[in-house]
């Protein structure tokens, strides 16, 4: 019997993960959940409350293993509080990678935000340049338009012309009226 290797059913557009296997949505969602979980822990470790509680825990540990009766002690001061040292080393060995992971994820988010800000700035610059060109075009168009003083002067000239025509019409009417009266005599 011939055994065939199962082919990846994903197309060429699916990204390959480390090791050459095709990344699945499930992997991405699991990584996202794990990343959020580690960010939550790293965020918690960066608070004053965590430092206060860790200090109280260590102080209680040291006092208990120093003052308590010998039968009740579980970590010897003579051996340098070995169990406490191991616990704190274990906590530090997990905290450092979690903090780095959270920092890397924040760097990725910052990189995406910077790219979006750059694109937004490019759009704003293009919009500003377009508006500046439009303002210049409007200024040039306004220069060709008559201003208020020009319009007033033109209106005054028209009024004067109309008044002159009106006076001429009145004189003509008076002249024709005088001529008609002279013919009637």
UniProtKB/TrEMBL annotation:
Transmembrane regions listed in the UniProt entry: 46-64, 76-101
Coiled coil: 104-131
A Pfam family it matches: DUF1003
Region of interest (Disordered), residue spans: 166-185
Keyword annotations of the record: Coiled coil, Membrane, Transmembrane, Transmembrane helix
Cleaved signal peptide residues: none
Entry-linked InterPro entries: DUF1003
Protein name stated in the entry: DUF1003 domain-containing protein
Source species: Leucobacter iarius
């Amino acid at each position: 019997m011939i055994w065939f290797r199962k082919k990846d059913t994903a197309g060429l557009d699916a990204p390959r993960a480390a090791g050459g296997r095709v990344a699945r949505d499930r992997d991405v969602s699991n990584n996202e959940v794990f990343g959020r979980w580690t960010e939550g822990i790293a965020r918690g470790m960066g608070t004053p409350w965590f430092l206060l509680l860790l200090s109280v825990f260590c102080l209680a540990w040291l006092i208990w293993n120093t003052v308590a009766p010998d039968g009740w002690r579980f970590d010897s001061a003579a051996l340098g509080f070995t169990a406490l040292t191991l616990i704190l080393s274990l906590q530090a060995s997990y905290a450092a990678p979690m903090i780095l992971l959270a920092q890397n994820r924040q760097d990725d988010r910052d990189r995406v935000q910077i790219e979006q800000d750059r694109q937004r700035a490019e759009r704003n610059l293009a919009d500003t340049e377009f508006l500046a060109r439009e303002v210049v075009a409007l200024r040039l168009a306004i220069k060709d338009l008559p201003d208020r003083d020009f319009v007033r002067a033109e209106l005054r000239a028209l009024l004067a012309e109309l008044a002159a025509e009106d006076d001429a019409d009145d004189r003509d009417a008076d002249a024709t009226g005088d001529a008609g009266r002279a013919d009637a005599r």
